[in-house]
Known about the structure:
- This protein has helices spanning 5-25, 59-62, 68-71, 85-92, 119-122, 141-150, 160-168, 227-246, 252-275, 282-287, 296-310, 333-357, 427-437, and strands at residues 47-53, 96-97, 104-107, 112-115, 128-135, 178-181, 207-209, 315-320, 364-370, 373-374, 377-378, 390-391, 395-400, 409-410, 425-426, 447-449, 452-454.
- With 470 residues, the chain is α/β, with parallel strands linked by helices.
- It has a single domain (36-218, 281-467), classed as Alkaline Phosphatase, subunit A (3-Layer(aba) Sandwich).
- A hairpin with a 2-residue loop joins strand 16 and strand 17 (452-454).
- Helix 8 packs antiparallel against helix 9 and helix 11 (296-310) runs parallel beside helix 12.
- The longest helix has 25 residues, at 333-357.
- Residues 8-30 have low confidence and may be disordered.
Amino acid sequence: MSINRxxxxxxxxxxxxxxxxxxxxxxxxxxxxxxxxxxxLVAKAKRCIFLFMEGGVSQVDLFDYKPALEKYAGxxxxxxxxxxxxxxxxxxxxxxxxxxxxxxxRHGQSGRWMSGLLPGMSQCVDDMAFMQGIKVDNNNxxxxxxxxxxxxxxxxxxxxxxxxxxxxxxxxxxxxxxxxLGDPRGAPIGGASVWGNGFLPAAYQGTLFRSGxxxxxxxxxxxxxxxxxxxKELDLLRWLNEKHAAERSNNSELExxxxxxxxxxxxxxxxxxxxxxxxxxxATKKLYGLDDPISEPYGRQCLLARRMVERGVRFVxxxxxxxxxxxxxxxxxxxxxxKHCKEVDQPVAGLLKDLKARGLLxxxxxxxxxxxxxxxxxxxxxxxxxxxxxxxxGLCVWMAGGDxxxxxxxxxxxxxxxxxxxxxxxxxxxxxxxxxxxxxxxxRLTYLSAGRYKKLTDIGGRVxxxxxxx
Length: 470
């Protein structure tokens, strides 16, 4: 039966209105979630380079000078109070205090004690602020890595880089807002989940750049592929994807994949120049340690990190330590720790000096962290190459750049560097401080997931005012 136009409109106006409303209500896939967003609070730092040392850096051998280790060398450590779990067990079990085998000296106007293994970083102490005696909630690597990098011990939460880009977007729409520079020797514990988006929309997950001359796979188009033809293919793919997405609302993975195709196309122009170091001077490469095969791998990561933030990438994570080369030194600290330091000291110092010389340190926050500290003792009483065990009470973190109070130290550990003399610094306080330095309010940076507003600091942290100039 045929009907005229008036009858059609009369009988179907509700359906047509519903279609129009759904089209208006649907999120626009053309609007990038990475567009720059204003800071919640006034802050100098606009971007962040996060240097993560996996395995548990020994604070008493690098940053936290403890002469008492010499006095008690070889003896049982006095039983510490207010410790639980493995640390309480290790401390009560037969053990021997292991003195630091490396010299310490004061450096800079701040008079900061630093290990002789870090001659490069020691020159930069007046740009750093240290937090000592930080407590993570688990004494094992996996949960501690998750806790440090996502604020939660369990997989599935958003990483610090995802939170930063969720809150601020990115200044460069032709590159990922959150880039991860992996250790060429292997993946970290937890794999990609430690830079994942968790419950946040998928667009905010980190993008891994591989080591070597081709950090981005399939970046170059086929030889016979012209830009115009590739654009036509991409337009067709986008039309099909958007048609598919229109029938499946709130699918952030699909929306992120569509955006990723567009980003990959734009990256073909900008990324090759970004990852090529051919334009860097010999002096700059030497500054980062690229002239030494030991420091070259992490030096390349640090130099790439500088080039990325220089081009407006919001958050860069540079990972160090994998497999048997992690900072997990249960034995032979005298042989292993110098090797770690040789790999990272010159690159990190070069990064800080280069950022400062270019005027970038003023608005770039640099963070050094690991997932835990180490014990001042060893429970293995027979080995002639002693090491140090895990210490969830002894994490040391330093920050530099932005509004960091240069030369400051917050937190004092006991005579053995085991734990804070007063109350441990909760890791959520460090995260709250990081967010504040980036101009983000921890209580406004939230995301509704599973019926609860989630945030990086979970139940909330205290901004450590002692290390910020705000």
